[in-house]
Amino acid sequence: MNGEQVQESQKRENAGEEDRNGRAEESGIVERIRDILVGSQMRDYDGRLQRLGEQLAGEAAQARAEAQKRFEALENSLKGEMESLTNRLNTEQSERRTAIEKLGHDLAETAKAFELKIKNLDEYAREIHDLHRQLLEQSKALSAEVKEKHEQTQAGLNRQAEQIRGSMIGRQALAEILSEVAGLLKNEPRRPGT
Predict the structure, then answer these.
(1) The model's pTM
(2) What is the pLDDT of residue 192?
(3) Per-residue exposure over 36-70, b if at least 16 CB sit within 10 Å of its own CB, e if not
(4) Which of 11, 17, 91, 176 is the most buried (most CB within 10 A)?
């Protein structure tokens, strides 16, 4: 590069720097003018926004604290309810367990009583069967004895009837004897056959 070019390059750089400085100055002036015109309002707005932010932060903190209190109260209430329900459930389970054990014991006792009664009924059935068998045997023996006595009595009656028939006189013979007796009484001898 030659000297002219370097000078021209420096001039351009200087011009660019001046241009930037000029713009910066203009920008600074614009800021100052703006600050003069609306600076107090902006500060007022900034203050208001800051107070509003602090108020919102306070209300948010208060809402968080209130929500935390309510959550804790709800949690405590739920814990109390859960403890109450757990206690009731444990009590009911204990009562049911006791009732089931008592029922099981009662059922076992009832089963034993039924087994004993069934055993007694079996014994009674055997005794009744034995009594029935004995009654049948005695009935057969009595029937045989009655039959034998009947036959003996019948035979005795038949013998006595035969004896009575044998000792009885026939009607005709009795009529003749009575006629003879009547004739003797009248002193008339009667002839046999008349």
Answers:
(1) 0.36
(2) 55
(3) eeeeeeeeeeeeeeeeeeeeeeeeeeeeeeeeeee
(4) 176
